[in-house]
């Protein structure tokens, strides 16, 4: 009797999880032409891909002189080849990247931390409002969650080559991936310490080398970042940090009270009634 009850509960949980994943996928793919509003940067990326496909002059630099995400541009090519210009074409790579992040969170996570933990992580990522939002906007930063999934899983597996390669490629995706360092480095160091339990001296050497490397590379990256004209301009223009305002804004971000598009804060109401055309 107890066994049958456990099977029933397990089946109900898996069914609920399946429903959650389907709803999360639906929120990522439905009404891409309507919500959120069109951002000019989405068209900027799409125009460069279109010019490239037509043999016209194009640039691989953003307006801030950053390198465009080549992986995002590559994903947009097949959609532009098979469809007329539209907003959903510009956002299709974001949908695909966000969906793959959920898939790999489970596939890679199952090997790194076990199936139950990976399943929870995948479900949380699928339902996280900011992750859904950025899966619907045709910007290169929509691939940040995917980069984060690979980086965290390599850190849990203590695979230095995979972790370093992911972090380097992450900088090509978007410079803000530098903020993955304080997340993945402690995880990697912990896993290395666990793995080297038979040789304490080697464990200390590895930990010291990794920490020194992170400090040197982090300092170099910070120095180079601060030398950029746009960063210096922002630093000079911004008032001193108001930590109360920062924490409040961070809270709104995670609760998805707002998102900034085109320089304005627009409230997004994720309700069925708002999915109709204007």
Report what the structure shows.
The protein is an all-alpha fold and 278 residues long. The protein has twelve helices and two strands; from the N terminus they run ααααααααααααββ. The protein has one domain (2-195, 239-245). The chain has helices spanning 2-29, 40-53, 70-82, 87-112, 115-127, 129-134, 144-156, 160-173, 181-195, 200-226, 229-237, 243-255; strands at 259-261, 264-266. A hairpin with a 2-residue loop joins strand 1 and strand 2 (264-266). The model is unreliable at 258-278 (pLDDT under 50).
Structure at a glance:
The protein has one domain. The protein contains twelve helices and two strands, in the order H-H-H-H-H-H-H-H-H-H-H-H-E-E.
**In terms of per-residue confidence, which ranges show pLDDT below 50 for 5 or more consecutive residues?**
258-278
> Please, how many helices?
12
Q: Helicity, in percent? A: 55-70%
- Element-by-element helix/strand order: HHHHHHHHHHHHEE
End-to-end distance, in Å?
55 Å
* Whole-number tally of structural domains: 1
Q: What integer value in Å does the Rg equal?
A: 21 Å
Q: Give, in spatial order, the strands making up the sheet with the most strands.
A: 1-2
Gross morphology: globular
Tally of extended strands? Answer: 2
- Average the pLDDT over all residues and give the rounded result: 80
Major sheet size, sense and barrel closure: 2 strands, antiparallel
Strand % is: under 5%
Structural class from helices and strands? mainly alpha
């Amino acid at each position: 009797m107890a066994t049958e009850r456990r099977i029933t509960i397990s089946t109900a949980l898996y069914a609920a999880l399946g429903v959650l994943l389907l709803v999360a996928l639906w929120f990522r793919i439905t009404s891409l032409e309507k919500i959120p509003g069109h951002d000019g940067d989405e068209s900027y990326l799409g125009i460069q891909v279109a010019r490239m496909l037509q043999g016209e002059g194009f640039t691989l630099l953003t307006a801030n002189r950053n390198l465009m995400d080549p992986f995002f541009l590559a994903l947009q090519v097949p959609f532009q080849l098979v469809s007329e210009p539209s907003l959903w074409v510009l956002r299709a790579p974001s949908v695909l990247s966000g969906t793959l992040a959920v898939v790999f969170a489970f596939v890679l996570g199952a090997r790194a931390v076990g199936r139950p933990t990976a399943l929870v992580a995948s479900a949380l990522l699928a339902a996280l409002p900011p992750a859904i939002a950025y899966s619907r906007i045709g910007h290169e930063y929509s691939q940040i969650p995917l980069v984060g999934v690979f980086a965290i899983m390599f850190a849990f597996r203590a695979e230095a080559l995979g972790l370093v390669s992911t972090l380097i490629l992450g900088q090509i995706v978007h410079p803000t991936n530098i903020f993955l360092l304080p997340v993945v480095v402690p995880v990697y160091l912990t896993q290395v310490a666990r793995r080297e339990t038979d040789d304490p001296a080697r464990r200390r050497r590895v930990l010291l080398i990794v920490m020194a490397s992170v400090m040197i590379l982090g300092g170099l990256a910070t120095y180079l970042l601060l030398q950029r004209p746009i960063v210096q301009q922002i630093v000079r223009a911004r008032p001193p940090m108001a930590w109360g305002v920062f924490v409040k804004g961070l809270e709104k971000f995670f609760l998805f009270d707002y998102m900034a598009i085109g320089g304005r804060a627009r409230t997004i109401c994720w309700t069925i009634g708002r999915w109709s055309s204007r």
